[in-house]
């Protein structure tokens, strides 16, 4: 049987959702900012540690300016994981993170919700980790779509988690 899971990228405009999507699926990056309209969907087949193949169907949404509640419900329905992306360099993209996660966890109880702080290449990793922790900002991973740091590992771990 074919194993397939829907994974949705969420978060404010300009945080790097499309860049992470392109980096993971096609291993490409561009400095140019092109606003995503609606949603783009791509499939990436990954091999799991036990040899099974997983089709990750990744939805790159246009994002939102303030709250994840503004995201179209049709994007969220039937998901197996949400990846909430924020931009480490812009506080407004993570200041409501706890409320955003609560909303997702309450309304989509069975969906794994992961948080990525992106643009790690622009900051000092140690200082940033300490700063985010001191502010109680929850995150699973810090990445750079630009340098590819932690991107492949993050998606591999996620693939394992949603299939175990
Ligand atoms: N330095 C740096 N720039 C990034 C990174 N990820 C995305 N960007 C840039 O940030 C801008 C917005 O990225 P995009 O992926 O379109 O954001 P989206 O609106 O969340 O889809 C673009 O100019 C990207 O080149 C990153 O990891 N490091
Ligand atoms: Mg985009």
Please tell me about this protein's structure.
This protein starts with a strand and ends with a helix. With 164 residues, it is of the alpha/beta class. The model has no long low-confidence stretch (mean pLDDT 96). The longest helix is centred in the last third of the chain and has 13 residues, at 151-163. The protein has helices at 17-26, 73-76, 97-107, 125-134, 151-163, and strands at 3-10, 39-47, 53-61, 81-87, 112-118, 141-143. Strands 2-3-1-4-5-6 form a six-stranded mixed beta sheet. The protein has a single domain (2-163), classed as Rossmann fold (3-Layer(aba) Sandwich). 33% of the residues are buried. Bound molecules: guanosine-5'-diphosphate and magnesium ion. The site of guanosine-5'-diphosphate has 19 residues, from helix 1.
Summary, kept brief:
The protein has 164 residues and is an alpha/beta fold. The chain is built from five helices and six strands. A six-stranded mixed sheet has the order 2-3-1-4-5-6.
Features:
164 residues; alpha/beta; binds guanosine-5'-diphosphate; binds magnesium ion
Terminal residue distance: 15 Å
**Helix percent band:** 25-40%
- Counting copies of identical and different chains, the oligomeric state is single chain
Q: What is the strand tally? A: 6
> Which descriptor suits the 3D outline?
globular
Tell me what portion of residues adopts beta-strand conformation.
25-35%
Helix-strand category: alpha/beta
Q: Compute the average pLDDT.
A: 96
Widest sheet: strand order? 2-3-1-4-5-6
Write out the CATH superfamily name: P-loop containing nucleotide triphosphate hydrolases
- Helical element count? 5
